[in-house]
Write a structure and sequence with these properties.
By secondary structure, the protein is mostly helical. It has a single domain, classed as Rhodopsin 7-helix transmembrane proteins (Rhopdopsin 7-helix transmembrane proteins, Up-down Bundle), CATH 1.20.1070.10. Helices cover 73% and strands 3% of the residues. It is built from 11 helices and 3 strands. The protein has helices at residues 19-49, 56-73, 76-83, 92-125, 130-133, 136-162, 179-183, 191-222, 228-257, 270-285, 288-307, and strands at residues 9-12, 89-91, 171-172. Strands 2-1-3 form a 3-stranded mixed β-sheet. Helix 2 (56-73) runs antiparallel to helix 4 and helix 4 (92-125) runs parallel beside helix 8. The longest helix has 34 residues, at 92-125. The protein is globular. It starts with 8 loop residues before the first strand and ends with a helix.
């Protein structure tokens, strides 16, 4: 805890103060969270155990599913507990930990989405050199860099949070700890820190989104000279990626770049819970290889249990 800071805990105002609505929130987001964990776990286990899903695309999809699960877990369990609690209290240390974990896996998801776009670009635009460019060693190195970049980003966020002197009452008008809602509780002029937050998180979200959109535009444009079958297969994969990118970056950019004016949409949980829930659905329903691998894997498992 930083020096000269008397605040030892924060109180969430949550999504609503209505007891009935809180119960509905608990039921709805329990389904979302369980679906997120189970769906992404299915993808993780399938990719890990399937011999047919060994390409770089599924290597990155493995880490995207892992990041999704951890990103959702950074906020969902606390949201569910608080939905049934009269007093939604979080300690200072738990709040700082939540900020770190939230930004670590949120940033990791961004970097993995970028790596998946790079992989699709090389596969579609430079197919003859795909194996040499996207080798296993290259993919592993890129993932290490993604982890390092995410750690640096989340460390920068938490260092900014540690510098904030908080005043009573320590009421957070939100359902989780993040820098933007915490800035409203400080006893200092936070314009400089708010600018740093925007430059850090906002710049990462915006520049990454622009990069991804340009990448997929180039990829889709290159498909004009492909055969109908080749275009269909590439479009199926790229469309799934583009949907995930838009669902993730839309709320992300709004939250990180907006002014400090409070909007009801600031409490939108789609960003941290809804998108991770939809990602496994999007990737499995639109990907025949993943669906076939899942069927084979679980068919073999059920058969082995019956024989055993």
């Amino acid at each position: 805890m930083p020096l000269n800071n008397s605040v030892t805990e924060f109180i969430f105002l949550g999504l609503t103060q209505d007891p009935l609505v809180q119960k509905i929130v608990f039921l709805v987001f329990s389904v979302f969270y369980v679906g997120t964990v189970v769906g992404n776990l299915f993808i993780i286990v399938t990719i890990k155990c399937s011999r047919t899903l060994g390409s770089p695309m599924y290597f990155f999809l493995f880490y995207l599913s892992f990041a999704d699960s951890c990103f959702s877990t950074s906020t969902a369990p606390r949201l569910l507990v608080d939905a049934l609690s009269a007093r939604k209290v979080i300690s200072y240390n738990e709040c700082m930990t939540q900020i770190f974990v939230l930004h670590l896996f949120g940033c990791l998801e961004i970097f993995v989405l970028i790596l998946m776009a790079v992989d699709r670009y090389v596969a579609i635009c430079k197919p003859l050199h795909y194996s040499s460019i996207m080798s296993r060693q290259v993919c592993f190195t890129l993932m290490v860099l993604a982890w390092v970049g995410s750690f640096i980003h989340s460390t920068a966020q938490i260092l900014l949070a540690f510098r904030l002197p908080f005043c009573e009452p320590s009421l957070i008008d939100h359902y989780c700890c993040d820098l933007q809602p915490l800035l409203k509780l400080t006893c200092m002029d936070t314009r400089r820190i708010n600018l740093l937050v925007v430059l850090n998180s906002g710049a990462i979200c915006s520049s990454s989104f622009v990069f991804l959109m340009i990448s997929y535009f180039v990829i889709l444009r290159s498909l004009r000279n492909r055969s109908a079958e080749g275009r269909k297969k590439a479009l199926a994969t790229c469309t799934s990626h583009i949907i995930v990118v838009v669902l993730f970056f839309g709320p992300c950019i709004f939250i990180d770049i907006r002014s400090r004016t409070t909007f009801p949409i600031d409490k939108m949980v789609f960003y941290t819970i809804g998108t991770p829930f939809l990602n496994p659905i999007i990737y499995t329903l639109r990907n025949a290889e993943v669906k076939n691998a899942m069927r084979k894997l679980w068919h073999m498992k059920i058969t082995a249990e019956i024989k055993g």
